[in-house]
Amino acid sequence: MRTEGLRQRKIIPQFRHFFDLSCIDYQYRIGEISTTIPPEIKDHIEGVLDTIFDPLPKHLNTHKTVKILFQTLAGFDPYTAWHSQENAEVSQILARECGIDDPRMLLNLRRAAMLHDIGKIGILNALDQPAKPGISLEFRMLHAYFTQYILKKFPSLAEIEPISSAVHVKKTGKSYPADLSWDTIPFEAKILAVADALHSITHERPGDGAKSRDDALKILRKYGYDQDIVDTLEKILPQIPQRLIPDVKSNGS
Question: pTM, whole model, 2 decimals?
Fold first, then answer.
């Protein structure tokens, strides 16, 4: 059995006290709330995120701001930081094949990939909690919203935030954050969405083993991703290094 790439959240202990949601009934029924975040959890987490991010300097250039925020993410959740770094590589490979060759666009995509999951900082405590039968958190909805909330605090991320925030917007089905739509999000966000899903599907996660590259393509075709981008991915997938996108078949699993 493969052990590399296991999704293990080793949250730095000194940060754990920031997100004590034990006083909040944050597990709720999806069908009852659609895409609305309960105000008690929204207000609580926004307050904690303000405490963490408001003191950070807002006058720095984009490079330094991305570096500081990524280091903050890595301090809270090393797995997500690693996942985001690898997504940055896969996204750039895929973007070039999709016809993006402008250096600034590629750099913005790379930076957006590095920060697209920073909103998970706001729900780390919830991510550690097992869901009760029939009750669940829409983690994508929550961390997509809080990614947008965090990145909008920094003026130098104005070109990056629309890409990072739109990774969970779908052509069909549920989209997060709810105020974004498929027709208006950047093309780079659609590329990053495919790369993000590909990386997640081909690595082990709690309750869900790593799937093969072929299975990943089938899943990407089933749900609301840009199918032209998926077509491009299928063509170049053999060229993507195994260290980034492993294939369980080649590991004898």
Answer: 0.84
